[in-house]
Amino acid sequence: xxxxxxxxxxxxxxxxxxxxxxxxxxxxxxxxxxxxxxxxxxxxxxxxxxxxxxxxxxxxxxxxxxxxxxxxxxxxxxxxxxxxxxxxxxxxxxxxxxxxxxxxxxxxxxxxxxxxxxxxxxxxxxxxxxxxxxxxxxxxxxxxxxxxxxxxxxxxxxxxxxxxxxxxxxxxxxxxxxxxxxxxxxxxxxxxxxxxxxxxxxxxxxxxxxxxxxxxxxxxxxxxxxxxxxxxxxxxxxxxxxxxxxxxxxxxxxxxxxxxxxxxxxxxxxxxxxxxxxxxxxxxxxx
Length: 287
Description:
The chain has a single domain (28-286), classed as P-loop containing nucleotide triphosphate hydrolases (Rossmann fold), CATH 3.40.50. Strand 7, helix 9 (223-237) and strand 8 form a beta-alpha-beta unit. By secondary structure, the protein is α/β, with parallel strands linked by helices. 44% of the residues lie in helices and 16% in strands.
């Protein structure tokens, strides 16, 4: 082997030992709060909440990064009017042999103040491949160190399962927001997720807060079911139950079909008002 090849291998090994990255991102002067949006059950309005909460925060003047950890890629579908293709998929950041920065996967959207990750079906493969990685729970946490200095809020849209990707999101987050529609199955899913939060706190020593349990898809015409599930939520989760309620609102569904946030589609709707209220309540709870 030639002398210059040996030198190159030694330099590469030294970079890996130091944890360096070949291309760095300059740190900013902000201190983002990171919120994972997670649910054990699908169909509870998780991505709708992630998208419209991000848009509400942007409307309020914040700089927001919304990372889609769900292989289904519904964030980009719900925001396709402003979504952009990206050169680096998030799964590549998570599975890289050397540490990478999540900012490699961040794309400036067509909505000023909002950054996204591109839809990434490779996250499905990443879910299983992470199992064999040393320190697999904290890969995303390490990759987000610089991103925390570049945004006011970072939202992580988790897949509807309690696997490696969701665990990475919880270890990278300061708090978790748990959407729950008015069904018994969703109620059971909230309990499962909060059990995982306890595990993260006690076994992995990460001070994860619970931002709250958010009632979603609340149909005012179904009062008896709302009362039954609402009382069960209050009895089981007490102060963790948010005051904000997301109603069944035709404008929310139509906005998603149009690939727009509710604020771009119908800013004076009940759905838009609900997500503004959620953004305000989140601010109060996070202090």
